[in-house]
């Protein structure tokens, strides 16, 4: 079958058909506009190995899935839903005649869970794989497992416009490359990086492009707020200004993608969803703000927050390429040319930095350990464990990590497990549907409306009653209601337009975000109203003057985790008594850094929140040691008082550890700060009896504790190889000063005490010269040397010349080799000689 032979992909279709005929997994690299999404599926529809089965095309975004399906259907002269259909969240257009289904990533995962064999499917195309979304990586891993265990006849085609050159080798799959046909794109940079609001720079570039170039304009901005601000500034131009973002209604998305019916020039203001998949007819100019906004997961707090970053080099190339799809074009890059090579080459795969709770729940249902799947990049184990902790809190996993019946029920709801748990477990299902919908959508209230989620529920219900509040975004409320309606349909309930109970709203939020239940900081602790402690242990604060600032407890939904203290954006009041129902009594023995004391008490806790406390009088030695060790690790070794003897013991051992290396079997123990902190329980624990305060810690004698780390015969060897003192020719025992970094130990001694000594003293069995600090009679260094013989033969005479007039009572012989060494003046030396 030949459908669009004029498209560049036609050149490689024979090679691709041959590869798919012989291999179950193939990689296709084809530039944007080559036809891999909109022509290739039709060319493969009647291949013998497909045997009349279906083709599934995986798309990362709903807007792209609808657009691809529409273009394929138009090529066949059909309506969507006949040979070609699509399935996206809450929407499908398929029929019994459908052979090609374009689906979004979550839809494919659901289908695999219900039908692991993918009965009736012969080929799965993973489009735009270079984006390396979490769901695309999951789909590929599951499909590869299905191929290996259930369906050796199932074909998978991984398609991408830009490609990691190692991908075919990592997948052990043949590569088919299409050169494509891109028209030249002239790239223009700014002289310097811009300052100020990004939308202002975009508007200036659009006005220049309208005057200087032909064709429609596609501008990339960071988000909806910036799109709206730019559109307001462009209200006077002689072109149709159209937004394009994921939450836009389908008819509005189609207006942005299609040519204007009246033939007017278009300016499309888009987020990064327009980078790939979509072909926007007529675009000859691209204006790129150089910025992208996306969710970033913070593993330290367990929270996600929006961040705005510079685009990567591969994203910038994708954006510029939009201008050369159908004719020569121009791309305005709103940054300087010298900044271009400083941009990151590509964004890391989403699996390395995403919230993994949805993935871990899917794999629990699949019955697979995340570590056992054939990933391109395996999920980080620490994040997998954090996801399991959350899923156990949501009752989705049992203590062994197996999925529970409730966890399986959560997967019936196409949303994050948090919101699914809210919908399934909420006592008021109609309110749960409204709250879940509001939490997924943008805020319908204007900026500065406060953080109370209950006000958003009230605004939604007023809007449903036909009442329009001041400043309320009816477009957002329309999308919220559409989503709430879907949840009500799944729950089989009717809407409720009664005024919402704020505490009921808070209880629902607490179901979704148990670690974000928060109690007000104690009054009188020098902390202002509106500051809270979350059950997860983090601090968070409301904006100044917020109506919820006086609440004793909150359930926090939206929180910006950036910075030391999170900023609460959306929350609801919570009845503290509800926490008591889920709190547990635990014995807590911990170090209080604020007071510098060992705190021992019985606490009724919900996460990090202490609801009630009673003194704990008897604690075990193990509890004491564990708590004190944790406190020392948190504050540092400066809590311990290392007296000179202890410091020198550490330096002596560390020096031998460095000097002797692997020569001593078993080696000398590591007494560095890091090693001592790691092993506090072992060496310090036995010496912590009765310790409760910082002052007690400072009084602990550390010398025997450190000596316990030297098993026999190391103490004896220590005295032989790194003695604390050396006896010098005058008979004095002089202390050595060792350095922990292995530098030569210092012997500070008056030079008169060394008369006649030719060789520099040594330690470490004669292998390490000491560093002599030769002192004047007043004890001040006059020479530093490791070559005593050279000093007597040369430098001594300069020193003698400078000092004998200043210290005439001390001997300064012409021949230091034969003079008797002495620690005394001439007179005392003479008297001793009588």
From TrEMBL:
Q: Where is the Helicase C-terminal domain?
A: 205-367
Q: Which Pfam families match?
A: CON_HrpB, DEAD, Helicase_C, HrpB_C, WHD_HA2
What residues does the Helicase ATP-binding domain cover?
Answer: 17-166
Q: Which InterPro entries match?
A: CON_HrpB, DEAD/DEAH_box_helicase_dom, HA2_WH, Helicase-assoc_dom, Helicase_ATP-bd, Helicase_C-like, HrpB, HrpB_DEXH
Q: Which Gene3D superfamilies match?
A: 1.20.120.1080, P-loop containing nucleotide triphosphate hydrolases
Coiled-coil spans are: none
SMART domains the UniProt entry points to: DEXDc, HA2, HELICc
Region annotation Disordered: where it falls in the sequence: 808-834
Is the keyword Cell membrane in the record?
no
Taxonomy, superkingdom: Bacteria
Q: Which GO terms describe its molecular function?
A: helicase activity
Keywords of the record: ATP-binding, Helicase, Hydrolase, Nucleotide-binding
Q: Which PANTHER family does the UniProt entry name for this protein? A: ATP-DEPENDENT RNA HELICASE HRPB
User: Which NCBIfam families does the record cross-reference, listed alphabetically?
Assistant: DEAH_box_HrpB
Give the protein name, as stated in the record.
ATP-dependent RNA helicase HrpB
């Amino acid at each position: 079958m030949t459908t669009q032979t004029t498209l560049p992909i036609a050149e490689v279709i024979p090679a691709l058909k041959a590869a798919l005929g012989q291999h179950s997994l193939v990689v296709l690299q084809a530039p944007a506009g080559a036809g891999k999404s909109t022509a290739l599926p039709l060319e493969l529809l009647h291949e013998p190995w497909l045997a009349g089965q279906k083709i599934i095309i995986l798309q990362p975004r709903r807007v792209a899935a609808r657009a691809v399906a529409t273009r394929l259907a138009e090529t066949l002269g059909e309506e969507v839903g006949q040979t070609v259909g699509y399935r996206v969240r809450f929407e499908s257009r398929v029929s019994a005649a459908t052979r090609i289904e374009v689906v979004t990533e979550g839809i494919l995962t659901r289908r695999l869970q219900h039908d692991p064999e993918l009965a009736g499917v012969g080929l799965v195309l993973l489009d735009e794989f270079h984006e390396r979304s979490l769901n695309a990586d999951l789909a590929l891993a599951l499909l590869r497992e299905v191929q290996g265990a259930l369906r050796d006849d199932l074909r998978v085609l991984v398609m991408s416009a830009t490609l990691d050159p190692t991908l075919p080798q990592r997948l052990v799959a043949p590569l088919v490359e299409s050169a494509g046909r891109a028209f030249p794109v002239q790239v223009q940079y700014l002289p310097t990086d811009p300052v100020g609001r990004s939308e202002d720079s975009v508007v200036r570039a659009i006005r220049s492009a309208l005057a200087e170039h032909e064709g429609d304009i596609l501008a990339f901005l960071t988000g909806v707020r910036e799109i709206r601000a730019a559109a307001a500034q462009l209200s006077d131009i002689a072109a149709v200004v159209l937004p394009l973002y994921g939450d836009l209604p389908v008819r509005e998305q189609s207006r942005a993608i299609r040519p204007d019916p009246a033939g007017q020039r278009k300016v499309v203001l888009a987020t990064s969803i327009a980078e790939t998949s979509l072909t926007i007819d007529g675009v000859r100019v691209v204006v790129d703000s150089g910025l992208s906004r996306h969710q970033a997961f913070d593993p330290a707090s367990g929270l996600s927050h929006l961040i705005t970053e510079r685009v990567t080099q591969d994203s910038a190339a994708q954006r510029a390429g939009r201008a050369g799809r159908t004719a020569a074009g121009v791309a305005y890059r709103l940054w300087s040319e010298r900044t271009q090579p400083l941009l990151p080459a590509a964004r890391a795969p989403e699996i390395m930095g995403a919230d993994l709770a949805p993935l871990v729940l899917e794999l629990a249902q699949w019955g697979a350990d995340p570590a056992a799947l054939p990933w391109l990049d395996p999920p980080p184990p620490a994040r997998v464990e954090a996801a399991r902790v959350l899923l156990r809190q949501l009752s989705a996993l049992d203590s062994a990590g197996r999925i529970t019946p409730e966890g399986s029920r959560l997967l019936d709801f196409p949303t994050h497990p948090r919101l699914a748990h809210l919908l399934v477990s909420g006592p008021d299902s109609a309110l749960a549907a409204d709250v879940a919908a509001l939490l997924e959508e943008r805020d319908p209230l204007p900026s500065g409306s406060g953080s109370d989620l209950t006000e958003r529920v009230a605004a939604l219900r007023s809007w449903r009653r036909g009442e329009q509040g001041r400043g309320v975004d009816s477009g957002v409320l329309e999308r919220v209601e559409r989503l709430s309606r879907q949840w009500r349909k799944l729950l089989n309930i009717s809407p409720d337009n009664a005024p919402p109970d704020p505490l009921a709203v808070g209880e629902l939020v607490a179901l979704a975000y148990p670690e974000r239940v928060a109690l007000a900081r104690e009054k009188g602790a020098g902390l202002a109203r509106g500051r809270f402690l979350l059950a997860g242990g983090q601090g968070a604060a409301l904006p100044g003057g917020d109506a919820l600032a006086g609440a004793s407890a909150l359930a926090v939904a939206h929180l910006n985790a950036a910075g030391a203290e999170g900023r609460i954006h959306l929350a609801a009041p919570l009845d503290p008594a509800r926490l008591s129902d889920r709190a547990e009594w635990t014995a807590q023995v911990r170090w209080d850094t604020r007071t510098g004391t060992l705190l021992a008490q019985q606490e009724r806790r919900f996460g990090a929140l202490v609801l009630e406390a009673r003194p704990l009088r008897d604690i075990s030695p193990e509890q004491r040691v564990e708590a004190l060790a944790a406190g020392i690790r948190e504050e540092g070794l400066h809590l311990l008082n290392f007296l000179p003897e202890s410091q020198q013991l550490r330096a002596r051992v560390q020096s031998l550890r460095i000097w002797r290396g692997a020569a001593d079997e078993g080696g000398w123990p590591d007494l560095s700060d890091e090693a001592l902190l790691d092993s506090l329980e072992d060496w310090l624990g036995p010496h912590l009896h009765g310790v409760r305060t910082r002052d007690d810690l400072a009084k602990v004698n550390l010398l025997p504790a450190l000596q316990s780390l030297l098993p026999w015969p190391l103490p004896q060897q220590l005295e032989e190889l790194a003695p604390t003192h050396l006896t010098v020719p005058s008979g004095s025992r002089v202390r050595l000063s060792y350095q922990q970094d292995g530098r030569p130990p210092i012997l500070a001694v008056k030079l008169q005490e060394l008369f006649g000594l030719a060789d520099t003293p040594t330690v470490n069995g004669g292998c390490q010269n000491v560093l002599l600090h030769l002192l004047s009679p007043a004890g001040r260094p006059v020479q530093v040397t490791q070559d005593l013989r050279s000093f007597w033969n040369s430098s001594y005479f300069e020193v003698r010349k400078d000092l004998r007039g200043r210290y005439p009572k001390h001997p300064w012989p012409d021949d230091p080799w034969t003079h008797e060494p002495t620690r005394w003046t001439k007179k005392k030396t003479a008297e001793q000689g009588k």
